[in-house]
Amino acid sequence: MMIRQRFLANILPLVCGLSLPISAFGQLEMSKDAKFKVDDPKFTELQSPEIQDGNAKSFKPKDWLEVEVKLQPDRVRNEPKDGYLDQINVNWHVVVKGQDRKNYKISKSVTYVNIPVDEPVYVSIYISPNTLKRITGSSKASKSDLEAIGGEIEWGGKMVGFFTYGQKAGWWREALKGVEATSKFPLLDKTQTPFAALWYDRYAEVQPKN
Description:
This protein is mainly beta and 210 residues long. It has one helix spanning 129-136; strands at residues 5-8, 34-38, 42-47, 63-76, 84-97, 103-116, 121-127, 146-155, 158-165, 179-181, 205-206. It has one domain (5-21, 29-49, 61-199). It has 1 helix and 11 strands, in the order βββββββαββββ. The strands form 2 sheets. Strands 5, 6, 8, 9, 10 and 11 form a 6-stranded mixed β-sheet that branches. It is flat, with a radius of gyration of 18 Å. The chain starts with a strand and ends with a strand.
């Protein structure tokens, strides 16, 4: 299997952590029972993997865009005896620059399970080659295609951390000028991509669909 990765550097998110006033996040209450350490979002350009299985088919690998966030529980009141949280939710929000001079906000909530309290894990979201080309008009994936990234980590229905890039923290709760929220273009979790089985132990487990 061959995967070419070109890491996109020089990422300068505006803020990350738990320093923003509660009022900036509307109705979602900040948890008093837990706090997560949340790193800055990182961006990676990935090409569709080529699998050698004896049934070679000709195709040209296309570019995917991955957004990855490293996180770890920093403080958990009444820490579970087995050292794991049952689940957390990550609410992802991405604004992609359109070729039609519009910006499109696409969102997705992903549930992750079996979260260790004593080690970091990574969570990630993906934009497929066809979605990227349909929005941007380019088959080349790039961090510059993104106007903003943001998200909230929830545990027990309360926020325990957040991350942001390109706009101030909490931007996803506001109406942004020139940005159209849409469900037409999907964000994908790792299990919905050809990278599902790759680097498995690096990532938090996505809750299986019933």
